[in-house]
Amino acid sequence: MGDNTGSVIPFSRARVTTDDRKHRPGECSHHHIKLDTHGGIVTCRDCGASLTPFWALRMLADQYALAVAQIDRFEDRVSRADARILELSRELDQRVETERARKTAPDAP
Fold this sequence. Notes:
By secondary structure, the protein is mainly alpha-helical. It contains 1 helix and 3 strands, in the order βββα. The protein has a domain at about 30-100. Strands 1-2-3 form a 3-stranded antiparallel sheet. The longest helix is centred in the C-terminal third of the chain and has 52 residues, at about 55-105. It comes from Paraburkholderia sabiae. This is Bacteriophage protein.
């Protein structure tokens, strides 16, 4: 048997990296998924790529979190708008009352 030690790469030279990007420019973002409930297969409706169920679950969870955050922002805006409407309504009522009182007050000599 020959010596194969020259073809073995030492671990100190091997580099392993992970790519956590959710989307690479020019690639499909896989936001329209199709679930095969019988086979447990997840595919992208746009490009047909097979997706892991965990990836699909994470993507859906991220989309859900974004939607909930947007709902929270909208609720905050509606709450502030309601408060401003009440404030303006009170100011208007006060002006109407002041104008009414001015019109009905007897003229000063």
